[in-house]
Amino acid sequence: MIEILNEAELSRAAVTGQLVGTILHDLKSRIRVGTNLLEVDRWAKAMILEADATSCYIDYEPSFGRGPFGYYICVGVNDAVLHGKPHDYQLADGDLLTLDLAVVKGGVAADAAISFIVGSTRDPADDALIDSTERALAAAIAAARPGARIGDLSHAIGSVLAEAGYEINMEFDGHGIGSTMHQDPHVANDGRPGRGVRLRSGMLLAIEPWVMADTNRLVTDEDGWTLRSATGCRTAHTEHTIAIVEDGARVLTLPASPTT
Questions:
Q1: What is the pLDDT of residues 173-217, one digit of tens each?
Q2: What are residue 193's phi and psi, to 5 degrees?
């Protein structure tokens, strides 16, 4: 199903998106060396409930997972890139952390992810990994407008990631979003321009480039959810929810400004 939102629904989507972006921004600002992943989940829960919103993950039970996810946010450390389950782990200096958050508020969902380095120890290869996903996302957003096709966005993502030297996994990708978190169309992280669904004003898309440093193969943790690089290499994941509007694309999942 592909939902086309009206102006009132797009306004509510903007509120949800800003909430997601603000929570991620606040979590990043609070996380330090020694922060426990379970504490990050508790912080996310408190902010979601305070905003009278609902986590898309707490009861999430797709065919590829093992039972309900059971937490409010996905957290991935180093080689964990998708569906990372919070667990009893204290973040170390130099860890590469991914936070992925999706909530529903006012009947509309929004989904976003950020990757960043914890502490002061930095490896240039990690920075390059994160930067590549951010640039790929920006390229896809620049290609998104009414009349464009999904393949144009996928091609933009894939071109940036391939030029940076990364292999691309096609098992998990971006997606349409609206009253529910996962909808059609799929937004693959590589593809051919001029192919696929034609974009229309009122569509919402969650675009999420992610890569692994030296492989395109994933393995699943014993928790049945957390997806890691098959080689144990570092990973990064960046995501925004956008609305297709008459003059292009509007990024919904940016944090509120300090004066908002």
A1: 999 999 999 999 999 999 999 999 999 999 999 999 999 999 999
A2: -65, 155
Binding-site members for substrate are 83, 182
- The predicted-structure confidence for 114-157, as pLDDT tens digits, reads as follows 999 999 999 999 999 999 999 999 999 999 999 999 999 999 99
Alpha helices (runs of H) in 31-115, residue ranges in sequence order: 37-50
Query: What sign results for the dihedral spanned by CA atoms 229, 20, 22, 13?
Result: positive
Output the known binding site for a divalent metal cation: 100, 111, 175, 208, 239
Please name every residue paired with 99 in a beta bridge, in sequence order, or none if there are none: 75, 114
What structural domains does the chain harbor?
7-251 (3.90.230.10)
Indicate the pTM of the whole model.
0.96
Q: What is the mean pLDDT of the chain?
A: 96
- 3-class DSSP state of 236: strand
Partners of 74 in the β-ladder? 100
Burial class of 58 by CB neighbour count within 10 A (0 to 12, 13 to 18, 19+) = middle
Q: Which residues are annotated as a binding site?
A: 83, 100, 111, 175, 182, 208, 239
Amino acid at 117: I
Q: Any alpha helices (H) in the chain, and if so which ranges? A: 7-30, 37-50, 124-143, 150-163
